[in-house]
TrEMBL record:
Comp. bias (Basic and acidic residues): 402-415
Protein name per its UniProtKB record: MFS transporter
Keyword Transmembrane helix: yes
Localization of this protein: Cell membrane
Bias type Polar residues, positions: 424-435
Domain Major facilitator superfamily (MFS) profile per the UniProt entry, residue ranges: 1-402
Signal peptide (UniProt feature, chain positions): none
């Protein structure tokens, strides 16, 4: 589902030149349309998550996937700027709530000591989508004229219908709760329930009995800092998602197919970095240091890409992607560890929705810069500056469950009554894994 999600929100990057030629959508209009998706996503994210709590994860996640697939397929009916804007906004409405719903879903299935790797396996769907979108979209664009449709219309139609089919399949495949998982033994289900309950009890004890309403989450400086950090990350992700093909086209001798293949390289590099860093974060518990390092790598790579030749810039963007796209499995466990258990779902939705405005600011800003200067260099420099500022902000985060406690490097807390049960929980999970 994550692969389809990223494929349908980012495939317009490969259709940009065709939309300009066929519909007269210029760089600024393209950037605005690409970014309007995130305005709708932000507005409807929290309401979507509230509805998920009412209807259950299985039904709601499946509904979201089918909805965005249908809307994405309808992109083939775009006739100009306004219909393009409307469909991109509607796509944001359809997708709203997907990412925080999955992240919250994982908190109800796995203890903190396993969430980094779980988030990486889930988030890698986006990287696989970015890696495959070029090789897939290029041939679809070459279908230009088949059955009276342009190549970009075929691309939106086929990739949109794929999402709708996956959403229907997911409804029959997903389980909403651990107790519904017939593929686990009774002992395995009990081990998971016990481990997650102990994690939540430990976090609740660390945070005390403070109220956790929406207003208390909104006014928290800690949440504000987390939003800024992830806002900077989203700027880098979506600036590269929507403008990487344009940057690669500056390499002499490229065409639709080679642009698609070369554009997949940064995302392929990020896959290996993501799994490696997620595993290190789970094993050591030192996610804050990893977060700072990845943000600095994103800053250096983005700046170097702005001041070098197109070929070298692609190499530098590979390094930058290893930074900004590897952050998710490090960042979200920090959020889940930092927030009160009763506020985790709301906090994830709030952070993700507001930070996703970076997906509006960066593509639209890149469009304005490219239209006025003929280059994306200043846009890349701005991304580098935001990543560097986010790295500074990350110094003020704490990924420990509470002051005065420290982790032993394996996700367990020393010096507290919870330490022994944590070891028992890990043993139970390990013993049950043989099944």
């Amino acid at each position: 589902m994550m692969m389809c999600n990223q494929l349908n929100r980012s495939n317009i990057g490969y259709a940009q030149s065709h939309l300009e030629a066929d519909l007269g959508i210029g760089a600024a209009a393209y950037g605005l349309g690409a970014g309007l998706f995130f305005i709708a996503y932000t507005v409807f994210e929290i309401p979507s998550n509230m509805l998920m709590e009412r209807f259950g994860a299985k039904l709601w996640l499946s509904r979201i996937c089918v909805s965005w697939g249908i809307v994405s397929a309808c992109m083939l009916f775009a006739q100009g700027e306004w219909s393009f804007y409307f469909l991109r906004f509607l796509l944001g409405v359809a997708e709203a709530g997907f990412v925080p719903a999955v992240l919250y879903y994982l908190t109800k299935w796995l203890p903190n000591s396993h969430r980094g790797r779980a988030n990486a396996r889930y988030a890698v769907g986006a990287l696989v989508a970015f890696s495959l979108s070029g090789p897939l979209s290029g041939p679809l664009l070459s279908l230009d004229g088949a059955w009276g449709l342009a190549g970009w219309q075929w691309m939106f139609l086929i990739e949109g219908l794929l999402s709708a089919c996956v959403g229907v399949f997911a409804y029959f495949w997903l389980d909403s709760k651990i107790d519904d998982a017939r593929w686990l033994s009774a002992a395995e289900r009990q081990a998971l329930v016990t481990a997650i309950a102990a994690d939540e009890a430990e976090a609740a004890a660390a945070h005390g009995s403070r109220r956790t309403g929406l207003w208390s989450v909104l006014r928290s400086p800690k949440v504000g800092l987390l939003i800024f950090i992830y806002f900077s990350v989203q700027m880098s992700i979506y600036a590269n998602t929507f403008w990487l093909p344009s940057i690669v086209r500056d390499i002499e001798g490229t065409n639709d197919v080679t642009v698609g293949l070369l554009s997949s390289l940064p995302w392929i590099c990020a896959i290996f970095a993501m799994f490696t860093l997620a595993r290190i974060g789970d094993r050591t518990g030192r996610r804050k240091a990893l977060l700072i390092g990845t943000l600095l790598l994103a800053a250096v790579g983005s700046y170097a890409a702005a001041v070098t030749s197109p070929v070298v810039a692609l190499v530098m963007l590979c390094l930058a992607a290893m930074g900004f796209k590897s952050i998710s499995p490090i960042f979200w466990p920090i959020v889940q560890r930092t927030l009160h258990p009763m506020a985790v779902g709301m906090g994830i939705a709030l952070i993700n929705s507001l930070a996703n405005l970076g997906g509006f600011v960066a593509p639209y800003g890149f469009g304005l810069v490219e239209e006025r200067t003929g280059s994306t260099a200043w846009g890349l420099i701005a991304l580098a500056a935001f990543s560097a500022l986010a790295a500074v902000g990350a110094f003020f985060l704490s990924d420990a469950p509470a002051e005065g406690r420290k982790e032993d490097g394996k996700g367990r807390t020393e010096g507290t009554p919870e330490a022994a049960p944590a070891q028992t929980r890990k043993t139970a999970l390990t013993d049950n894994s043989s099944h």
